[in-house]
Amino acid sequence: MHAASTTKAFTAAAALILVDRKQLALDTNLTQLLPQDVIKNIPFVEDIKVHHLLQHTSGLYSPNNNQKYLARYIGPERNEKPFWTASEIVAFAASPENPPEAEPGTSSYYGDINYVLLSMIVSYVSGEPYKQFVQREIFDRLGLANSYFLSDQPQQYRAHGYTVDSELLRNFGLDPALKADASGFIDTTQAQEQSDGAAGIITTVVDLARFAQALTQGDLISDSNRAMVLSVAEQARLSEAGEAVGILRGYQFPYGLVVAAEGDGPGINIVWVMQMGSKRIVAAAINQFGGWNESEYLLNTLVPAVFNTAIE
């Protein structure tokens, strides 16, 4: 399945591995980590630190829902240049037409741009390509034999993803080649995002659950960094809304306090959830998008149903 934004947890783990090795510090500024030609137009660049990217508090504009950005995935442009490179995403997000959401550290604005920049930092700090680092330090180390990057193997078999046809989608500028079948679904498998550090992994729910356990309970990262990753759960417990955004998301649900990584996009809804009290983990995916609130179904129906069973 396309991992969508659950990819971000892998990128966070890669960065925190470098922090544990003293090759990277959370309070290091972007100007000390990335070349000037990459960051020169980024607003507030001198104030953005690694922890801002991890926690989605950089304030940078993120193109996730920008029509021009998405056109390469689902619009006619997808056949001309089907995916954005990391440097292109950074340049687009830092362009004058896309002003920042806020100053760094003042509020949380979830966005791919933070993790695109983090993937570039992992590469520059480690001295090797981001995907190579993740392959060795996470996929190989944890035995995730069925996880890989879509941009490396775009034609390799994966579950097809289906998006419900709608007037909104067609008004957006859908590629005419993406046609709905008789049941009203469009096969959007080839329109899935390929941004390596933010939404570019293909995986299985078995591999995803194994990674989640290693991140939240194993020795993939240090105890101190793991506590930081899980601290979002306490923030959710204390918030009026019962949720919080950090490296992961935290929720206070009737079935308990949880941390989760979620992803969605053309043809996919995917999530892994750890229940804080029991440490149980559920990973689940639906290869459908736009039919109903599939993500809410996973979090509020399927996941609690599993947690309420006697299965470990």
Layout: helices, strands, pairs:
Layout: H1 7-20, H2 36-39, H3 50-54, H4 67-74, H5 86-93, H6 112-126, H7 130-142, E1 148-149, E2 162-164, H8 167-173, E3 185-187, H9 196-199, E4 201-202, H10 205-217, H11 223-238, E5 243-245, E6 249-253, E7 256-265, E8 268-275, E9 281-286, E10 288-289, H12 294-307
Parallel strand pairs: 2-10
Antiparallel strand pairs: 1-4, 2-3, 5-6, 6-7, 7-8, 8-9
What does this structure look like?
With 312 residues, the chain is an alpha+beta fold. The chain has a single domain (4-153, 194-307), classed as Beta-lactamase, CATH 3.40.710. The chain contains twelve helices and ten strands. It has helices at residues 7-20, 36-39, 50-54, 67-74, 86-93, 112-126, 130-142, 167-173, 196-199, 205-217, 223-238, 294-307; strands spanning 148-149, 162-164, 185-187, 201-202, 243-245, 249-253, 256-265, 268-275, 281-286, 288-289. A five-stranded antiparallel beta sheet has the order 5-6-7-8-9, sandwiched between helices. Strand 8 and strand 9 (281-286) form a beta hairpin. Helix 1 runs parallel beside helix 6 (112-126) and helix 1 (7-20) packs across helix 7. The longest helix is centred in the last third of the chain and has 16 residues, at 223-238. The two termini are 24 Å apart.
Portion of residues in helices? 25-40%
**Which structural class is indicated by helix and strand composition?**
alpha+beta
- List the quaternary state of the chains: single chain
What is the CATH-assigned architecture? 3-Layer(aba) Sandwich
Fill in the keyword field for this structure.
Beta-lactamase; 3-stranded mixed β-sheet; 5-stranded antiparallel β-sheet; 312 residues
